[in-house]
Amino acid sequence: MRPDADQTCQTTQCWLSVPSCCSPDRELCPVNTGLYISTGFGVLSLLLAVAGGIIAWTRYKMNVKVWLYSHGVTWVKEKDIDRDKVFDAFISFSYKDQDLVIPVLIEVIEEKDPNIRLCLHYKHFLPGEFIQRNIMRAVECSKRTVLVLSRNFLESEWCLLEFNAAHVQALKDHVPRIIVIKLADLPKDDELPKEIQLYLNSTTYLTWGEKHFWNKLLYILPRSQAIQKPKTRDNAGLQIPMTDFYA
Fold it and tell me: Residue 8 — pLDDT band, cuts 50, 70, 90?
């Protein structure tokens, strides 16, 4: 453009023809800095929102999945919620029933399917730790809690605490966490604690010795990926490091 040529600028309302000698180009056709600022601010806000979303998802991913699963979002699977759980099942029973539970129930489960990881009082409860904390950690770290329901179970304060902890966890996750095995020595239904009565009346349970008992139990128990079962007799089943249980 020649120095003496007129310049034409567009305003919001009309075109203006101004001699070039009157004012520099920048003053004749000013840059819309407000547009650039608002665009830059919008891009920056978007980047911050994306970064914040990534950080929030990384930190609260499990809580988000639990909420979505409990609200019927089908692409969120139960296995996603339980991915970080150490055990497949916590076996809750009275020590007075251990002659039945340990050599029969537990050993048969471990023999029939070594991929089922069991949490057991005598293996995984930390000595010197409060019993309540041991129970809460066992329930939280297990995909299911198997209750061996007997008269001895009902008379045990700690067994009832294990039932309540598992029931609360099931309500919290909106996932059926409890598997009940009824022994034959239970009192009549109307003599059971009210919470136990309500639970038995609203869910399906197994009765010890019923037809196809083992097939039914093994079918409903979750299992982890294939693992190598320890070969020593004293350490039958999977041994979970205590650092994993109490991390």
Answer: low
